[in-house]
Automatic annotation (TrEMBL):
This is 4-carboxymuconolactone decarboxylase. It comes from Streptomyces yokosukanensis. Pfam families: CMD (PF02627). InterPro entries: 4CMD/NDH-1_regulator, AhpD-like, CMD-like. Residues 18-101 form the Carboxymuconolactone decarboxylase-like domain. It comes from the Bacteria.
Length: 108
Protein backbone atom coordinates (compact mmCIF):
# COMPACT_ATOMS: atom_id res chain seq x y z
CA UNK A 1 0.00 0.00 0.00
CA UNK A 2 1.14 3.52 -0.65
CA UNK A 3 0.49 6.68 1.33
CA UNK A 4 -1.82 6.78 4.32
CA UNK A 5 -4.89 5.28 2.67
CA UNK A 6 -6.61 2.61 4.75
CA UNK A 7 -6.46 -0.94 3.47
CA UNK A 8 -9.76 -2.03 2.00
CA UNK A 9 -8.73 -4.98 -0.17
CA UNK A 10 -9.07 -8.33 1.60
CA UNK A 11 -5.88 -10.04 2.80
CA UNK A 12 -6.56 -12.95 0.43
CA UNK A 13 -6.43 -10.56 -2.54
CA UNK A 14 -3.33 -8.86 -1.11
CA UNK A 15 -1.52 -12.23 -0.79
CA UNK A 16 -2.41 -13.54 -4.26
CA UNK A 17 -2.75 -10.39 -6.36
CA UNK A 18 -0.94 -7.58 -4.56
CA UNK A 19 -1.21 -5.11 -7.43
CA UNK A 20 -4.99 -5.64 -7.57
CA UNK A 21 -5.09 -4.96 -3.81
CA UNK A 22 -3.05 -1.77 -4.25
CA UNK A 23 -5.33 -0.57 -7.05
CA UNK A 24 -8.37 -1.36 -4.92
CA UNK A 25 -7.01 0.66 -2.01
CA UNK A 26 -5.24 3.50 -3.81
CA UNK A 27 -7.40 4.08 -6.89
CA UNK A 28 -10.87 2.66 -6.31
CA UNK A 29 -11.41 3.60 -2.67
CA UNK A 30 -8.93 6.46 -2.17
CA UNK A 31 -9.76 8.20 -5.45
CA UNK A 32 -12.98 7.07 -7.17
CA UNK A 33 -15.00 6.69 -3.96
CA UNK A 34 -13.75 10.09 -2.72
CA UNK A 35 -14.74 12.14 -5.78
CA UNK A 36 -17.07 15.00 -4.84
CA UNK A 37 -19.71 14.71 -7.57
CA UNK A 38 -21.49 11.80 -5.86
CA UNK A 39 -21.90 11.28 -2.14
CA UNK A 40 -20.65 8.07 -0.53
CA UNK A 41 -24.33 7.21 0.06
CA UNK A 42 -25.10 7.55 -3.66
CA UNK A 43 -22.00 5.56 -4.61
CA UNK A 44 -23.07 2.80 -2.22
CA UNK A 45 -26.57 2.62 -3.69
CA UNK A 46 -25.17 2.48 -7.23
CA UNK A 47 -22.61 -0.15 -6.28
CA UNK A 48 -25.15 -2.34 -4.49
CA UNK A 49 -27.50 -2.09 -7.48
CA UNK A 50 -24.73 -3.10 -9.89
CA UNK A 51 -23.64 -6.02 -7.73
CA UNK A 52 -27.22 -7.27 -7.34
CA UNK A 53 -27.89 -6.93 -11.08
CA UNK A 54 -24.69 -8.76 -11.98
CA UNK A 55 -25.12 -11.45 -9.31
CA UNK A 56 -21.81 -10.59 -7.67
CA UNK A 57 -22.79 -12.01 -4.29
CA UNK A 58 -19.22 -12.41 -3.01
CA UNK A 59 -18.73 -8.63 -3.05
CA UNK A 60 -22.29 -7.76 -2.04
CA UNK A 61 -21.84 -8.51 1.67
CA UNK A 62 -19.07 -5.96 2.11
CA UNK A 63 -20.83 -3.35 0.04
CA UNK A 64 -24.09 -3.77 1.95
CA UNK A 65 -22.12 -3.15 5.16
CA UNK A 66 -20.53 -0.09 3.55
CA UNK A 67 -23.99 1.10 2.40
CA UNK A 68 -25.29 0.88 5.97
CA UNK A 69 -22.21 2.82 7.15
CA UNK A 70 -22.94 5.38 4.41
CA UNK A 71 -26.43 6.11 5.83
CA UNK A 72 -28.60 3.81 3.74
CA UNK A 73 -31.18 2.05 5.90
CA UNK A 74 -31.99 -1.65 5.70
CA UNK A 75 -35.43 -0.64 4.42
CA UNK A 76 -33.96 1.47 1.61
CA UNK A 77 -31.66 -1.38 0.61
CA UNK A 78 -34.57 -3.84 0.66
CA UNK A 79 -36.60 -1.47 -1.51
CA UNK A 80 -33.73 -1.14 -4.00
CA UNK A 81 -33.43 -4.93 -4.16
CA UNK A 82 -37.18 -5.29 -4.66
CA UNK A 83 -37.08 -2.73 -7.46
CA UNK A 84 -34.17 -4.56 -9.07
CA UNK A 85 -36.14 -7.82 -9.14
CA UNK A 86 -38.07 -6.43 -12.09
CA UNK A 87 -34.97 -5.29 -13.98
CA UNK A 88 -32.21 -7.69 -12.94
CA UNK A 89 -34.24 -10.82 -12.31
CA UNK A 90 -36.04 -12.52 -9.48
CA UNK A 91 -33.20 -14.92 -8.58
CA UNK A 92 -30.74 -12.03 -8.23
CA UNK A 93 -33.11 -10.18 -5.90
CA UNK A 94 -33.88 -13.29 -3.85
CA UNK A 95 -30.17 -14.00 -3.38
CA UNK A 96 -29.46 -10.38 -2.48
CA UNK A 97 -32.30 -10.39 0.08
CA UNK A 98 -30.71 -13.34 1.85
CA UNK A 99 -27.39 -11.53 1.96
CA UNK A 100 -29.05 -8.35 3.22
CA UNK A 101 -30.77 -10.36 5.96
CA UNK A 102 -27.47 -11.89 7.07
CA UNK A 103 -25.73 -8.49 7.09
CA UNK A 104 -28.47 -6.69 9.01
CA UNK A 105 -28.95 -9.53 11.51
CA UNK A 106 -25.20 -9.58 12.16
CA UNK A 107 -25.30 -5.82 12.76
CA UNK A 108 -28.03 -6.12 15.41
Amino acid sequence: MTGTNPRVAPDLVRRHAPKLADLTDDVLFADVWERADLSPRDRSLITVAALVALGRDAQLTGHLRRALDNSLSPGELAEAITHLAFYAGWPAAMSATGILAAVTEAAD
